[in-house]
Design a protein that fits this description.
The complex is a heterodimer of chains A (about 100) and B (about 475). Chain A has about 100 residues and is mainly β. Chain A contains no helices and eight strands. Chain A has one domain. The chains are: A mainly beta (about 100), B alpha/beta (about 475).
Chain lengths: ~100, ~475
């Protein structure tokens, strides 16, 4: 199911524990999946089965982005599935190093 | 968004890590999460969570607890007079006030910092309400009636996500928190330390001796200081300071005298110093002068590099910055103007006064300054502090910088004094360590700056008035010239 996502929207995987929060998204309809199944708002009652081809896992605290960095998701809870967006290649964003300021 | 997410992630991913150390009390992130839920459970519908006390474990717990309960957190200044405090409390009720002080007001329920911890925990999830306010902070009001700055969850989260990586702190890292809870730097430190997974060591009442002792005892690695605190530590150290665990010291909240930062770098050569420039209205830091820039400036013979030790640094990646003239045009490097900033962390909104942002989202900081050719920002002072002599704008900072080079002048402030001929003229308040005749002061200014900068009134003081977080109280000095 594709739709336009607003920053702050939290999406849960339906096949693993993964939860992400949209930090940035383009103003276009996106189809976001995790572990091969569409992600949804709110945790599912029961977990479906994980697509083993989509099981690289997510890590809490990591940011996920496409090559052009047009969208960015923060993993707020890690899981076994991989986050994908149809038509884009999603990967972990390299951490930027700023000095500690507080 | 909701700032409670930061604590939730930390308590789930590294709940075993120590979060808070305050005196004999020690608390892990999991326990801090529980404490926040206990506070949230005590909040009645429609109540804000207010805090009027020195640093205590209930401060971070209340900051996150209010967020969990879906209500703003308001931190009040415990150094205010009763009258000032009553006036602010009347502006925030109904509220649950965490305090040991004897205050009462209509629709105000007080509870002590110890008693607010414990009891049953709130079971629900933190609400995501678009545009919800996370923190209300009264500005210091050095120039007038304090305004209540509104910081939304989205502003604070933008600051955290823009500057810190989750769980980026090593397991042994500890931050020494000395800035009071009612200061934006005190709030920011809790949010970033929580997200980074860094132990927060609270020092409720700052003295340089206590700071050094606690840093040694807790093997502190990080600290934030306002300039006057750093100066007092340098004074007490007397040339040698043994804190081998210390790695990073950030400073901000006021102008850092060059002599102070140089002395601190000499004293702690292994420490990384960072100047963090920001305002309450920008959810803390918007520009940074990092450790490498400090060392480069310190060791450089090139005056244009060397002066960067007095720079606020460059904007963080998520912030845009412009210097504009009074007329609103963007000016060239090296030209002094008004500092404007834009970014998701910038709130720029006061309760009852609305948003101060322009149509394109730019916020006028009311600070004056300029950037150099490489984008390094130099803050000159508050726009309100400019002396307007016969239509000519005079920056107090340039006069102060010149006078500070005199070896017998320990501290100096230039302010506007009423003048029959010019409207305003330059008044200078000095703290001297020896006998410096007026003529010598005037000659020093005349030799370096235009004659309009020469003070028409000079007074000597035992010390200049600062507030407790190191902000020079220019209004008090101005008033003292009028007496």
């Amino acid at each position: 199911m594709s739709q336009i996502y607003k920053p702050g929207t939290k999406l849960s995987s339906t096949v693993c524990k993964t939860q992400i929060m949209v930090l940035r998204a383009p103003a276009e309809e996106l189809t976001i999946t995790c572990g091969g199944a569409p992600m949804q708002v709110g945790d599912p009652e029961e977990l479906g089965s994980l697509d083993s081809a989509q099981a690289n896992g997510t890590l809490v605290g990591k940011r996920y982005t496409d090559e052009a960095e047009s969208m960015e998701f923060l993993c707020t809870r890690g899981g076994e599935g991989s986050v994908s967006v149809a038509g884009y290649s999603i990967d972990i964003k390299a951490a930027k190093k700023l000095p500690s300021s507080d | 968004m909701n700032i409670h997410l930061l604590l939730q992630m930390s308590s789930e991913a590294m709940g075993y890590r120590e979060a808070i150390v305050c005196g004999e009390t020690r608390m892990t992130f999991e326990e801090l999460g529980e404490a926040a839920a206990q506070i949230a459970a005590k909040v009645d519908s429609g109540e804000k969570v207010a805090y009027l006390a020195e640093a205590h474990p209930s401060f971070p717990a209340a900051l996150f607890g209010a967020a969990l309960a879906g209500t703003p957190f308001v931190s009040l200044n415990y150094r205010l007079s009763k009258e000032q405090l009553d006036a602010q409390i009347a502006r925030i009720t109904p509220a649950k006030l965490i305090t040991d002080s004897d205050v009462s007001a209509e629709s105000l329920v007080t509870v002590s910092p110890n008693d607010v911890l414990g009891g049953s925990a709130y079971e629900g999830e933190a609400p995501d309400v678009e545009g919800a306010v996370a923190v209300e902070l009264f500005t210091s009001g050095t120039t007038g009636e304090p305004k209540s700055a509104l910081l939304r969850h989205s502003n604070l989260m933008a600051y955290v996500f823009g500057t810190i990586e989750f769980m980026s702190a090593e397991e042994d890292e500890a931050a020494l928190l000395t800035v009071p809870p009612y200061h934006i730097a005190g709030i920011a430190a809790v949010l970033s330390s929580t997200y980074a997974g860094r132990r927060m060591v609270q020092l409720p009442s700052f003295t340089p001796e206590a700071w050094i002792k606690l840093a040694q005892k807790e093997n502190v690695t990080n600290a934030f200081l306002v300039p006057t605190m750093l100066q007092r530590i340098v004074d007490v150290a007397g040339g040698s300071l043994n804190i081998p665990s210390m790695r990073n010291i950030a400073y901000g909240g006021g102008k850092m005298p060059r002599e102070t930062i140089e002395a601190a770098m000499d004293l702690l050569p292994h420490v990384n110093f960072t100047n963090a420039y920001g305002l309450t209205e920008t959810s803390a830091t918007i520009c940074m002068l990092g450790p490498d820039e400090h060392r480069e400036a310190y060791n450089s013979d090139d005056p244009s590099i060397r002066r960067r030790l007095g720079s606020a640094g460059i904007p963080i990646p998520t912030i845009e910055l412009q210097i504009r003239s009074e007329e609103g045009d963007v000016v060239d490097p090296e030209t002094t103007g008004l500092v404007w900033v834009r970014g998701d962390q910038v709130s720029g909104e006061y309760k009852g006064h609305g948003s101060q942002l322009d149509a394109e989202g730019w916020f006028p900081t009311k600070d004056r300054g300029y950037v150099d050719a490489d984008g390094f920002l130099f803050i000159d002072g508050r726009a309100d502090d400019v002396i307007v002599r016969g239509g000519e704008n005079i920056s107090p900072g340039e006069i102060e910088d010149v006078l500070r080079t005199h070896k017998c002048i320990k501290d100096v402030a230039a302010v506007a004094v009423p003048d029959v001929e010019w409207g305003e003229a330059v008044g200078v308040a000095l703290v001297c360590t020896g006998d410096v005749p007026d003529a010598e002061i005037c000659d020093l200014v005349k030799a370096n700056l235009r004659s309009s900068r020469v003070p028409s009134v000079i007074k000597r003081m035992d010390e200049l008035p600062y507030n407790e977080t190191g902000k020079l109280l220019r209004r008090v000095i101005r008033d003292s010239f009028a007496d």
